[in-house]
Amino acid sequence: MHKSSSNLTYRFSSVDLTKRSNSHLEDISQHATRRMAIMNEAEEQERKIVHEFCHLLEKSKQLFNGLRDLPQYGHKQWQAYFGRTFDVYTKLWKFQQQHRQVLDSKYALKRWQIGEIASKIGQLYYHYYLRTSETNYLNETFSFYAAIRARGYYNKASKEERSDLMVKKLRYYARFIVVCLLLKKMKLVKELVRELAKQIDDYTSTYEPEDQLEWSLVLGEIKSFIEADNLVNITDVNSAPVVLSHRLNPLNSPPVEKLPTNHLTLQEILIVGNCCDQVKFSELTLDMFRMLQTVEREPQEEATQMFDSTPTPGRIPFPPDNGDQRPAKRENPHKYLLYKPNISQLIVFLSSGFKELPPNGVLLLYMSADGCFTNVKHPDDGYDYGGIATNSKREPDHINKRNVQLKDIHCLYPGDLYPLTRKPLFVIVDSDNSHAFQYIPRYFGQPVLVLMSPEDIPPSFHDQQHKGNLFTLFLHSPLTAICFICNITEIPHTLWEKSQSHVDRFMSEASRLLVKCRNIDPAFLQFYGDDFLRLLILRFIFCRVVLRLHRLFMNNNFSPRSHPPLSEPEILEQPSLKKVIIELVSVLDVRNMFNEIEETD
């Protein structure tokens, strides 16, 4: 009985053990199944992440490439497309930040690919700046470009043994340098130029590419541009360079008096450059570079846009809700930059700017170009005085079969501007044939004002013309211009500030005289209410008074003109203005270069 009971117990124990074993195996199997399910789910999730990344990447590339097909003029056509492109790139940038670990392991995401995304976002912001003239977008561009450099996203591009990646890296450097030049980050510019030179050497020695000469020319252009723009070195107490911006800000904004008429506002600008001997970089001549800053307000630095911060797309531009797709309020007037445009392009952009003008808006046309001259002995219309060359192209001679004297097709004549005088028009001509534009009539009764450069400069300055035109320099930075004509190449910052106070005094006095002048064309007062146009008018007066006092500029061809002209007795030859200039040049210790006041009366 005992034995039977023992066997029974054994059988039950064996059965129980078997059940437990089977149960354990089932648990293991279920656990493995669950684990496999979890792994499969994780892998599926990772596949979805990679798929979504690829989708966003491809869509972003398509939208970015589509930007090339958008018209470069007008406001309505491009803003919605830009908004969609920004939206996709914002999602793409945040997505790769959130899923970097998965993308590193499953997609083999490389750092240069992250850099490429950041570079594209930087380019978007830069092109948005070009299209809107909002300088704060330059800070956004800088944020992304600086992050690429700080994090070394392109550092291993050369190890990929792909020449196209090296070209992308070189283009990134060139774009970054342009942005830093516009933001006046000159110390960083010099560092980037050194790095670019090294990268070009590595590129050419490794691949021996066909575009080797092209990149050498780019580097040469950059160096020449920086050197030519540095006309006056301003130094602090430790002899370190001080870099100043010459954009409009509350400190240099000229005073405004109460005006008797409703003033106009500058809304559209065309900046045209075609000076063959002038240095340029990235389709910007020095004159264009200086003028575009002159008609911009100073951008505001933001804490989120510091050099070493992680960039995130901050301002995502979207089209406004108002019907005509224009921003409700714009800090800067909208501008087009046209480097050596053919006449067809120039007319299209002029027409677009004219079309986009709102009520009480002003179109500003700035032209820095070589002159087109004519042999007409008795000119009687707007096409007989010549004009300015917009492009160096020449039409084939075989078109002129009858040997008829043809006018240059790529010349902008004063008569070409007549249709634009239907709306307020402000013209600045810096050319050796600028005076051809002094006869523009006012057929439609709207205000028209033309500021014209001297047609010539003293021979001692001829070899300096590649550094930009003198008239534009006066409009950009009056104190730099007066230092330039007085051969002042270095100045302590304290002396600069003291001299600038005299310039400010001149502007205040000139403003007072202009507003109270009895014999003044109403156009001056109508334009004078706008900050930028007021600045340009007062700097024109400064230029005129300074050059007439300077001993080397006494020839009439060395003086600027305006149409309609300003009153000489009441403004241009006013002793109070001359006195301020004499005090200024005395502070600068160049009094001997200027005439006595009575000598010019």
Automatic annotation (TrEMBL):
Coiled-coil residue spans: none
Polar residues biased stretches: 302-312
Any single biological process term in GO: DNA-templated transcription
A GO molecular function held by the record: transcription corepressor activity
Span list, region Disordered: 301-330
Protein's UniProt name: Protein SCAI
